[in-house]
Amino acid sequence: MNTAAVLDICLQALLAAAKLAAPVLVTSLVVGLAISLVQSITQLQEATLSFVPKAVAVAIALIVCGQWMISEMVSFTNDLFARIPSLLGSH
Predict the structure, then answer these.
(1) Which of 55, 8, 10, 3 lies closest to 28 in space, CA to CA?
(2) Helices (H), strands (E): how many in the chain?
(3) Are 35 and 50 in contact (CB under 8 A)?
(4) What's the rounded Cα separation, in Å, for the pair 66 and 80?
């Protein structure tokens, strides 16, 4: 196994992690921004007003995107297992 193969695997792993984290992070960002906008307009500075809606939105995002996230991870894992013979040198 050479360094190019290791770097390629690391790059694929980082891209997979970014793709899997994106729906949850974007949902949390959008809901947090909307809640902070509402809080600044109404001047309600309650901590639970920002936490509970974000938690619910993230749970909904996981329910909606969960199937896709699992299939992406299974695909990535299958690709890694398929590459084992070429990484060990036996073509």
Answers:
(1) 55
(2) 2, 0
(3) yes
(4) 21
Residue spans per domain, the chain: 3-88
8 A C-beta contact, residue 54 and residue 26: no
Longest dimension (CA), the chain: 66
Measuring CA to CA, which residue among 65, 54, 66, 59 is closest to residue 30?
54
Over residues 49-76, the pLDDT tens digits come to 888 999 999 999 999 999 999 999 999 9
Q: What is the pTM of this model?
A: 0.79
Q: Which two tokens stand for residue 19?
A: 């793709």
| Token pair of 89 as six digits | 């040198």
Residue 16 near residue 76 (C-beta atoms within 8 A)? yes
CA distance to 13, 60, 72, 79, per residue, from 16 (Å): 5, 21, 8, 12
Q: What is the pLDDT of residue 88?
A: 86
DSSP state of 91: -
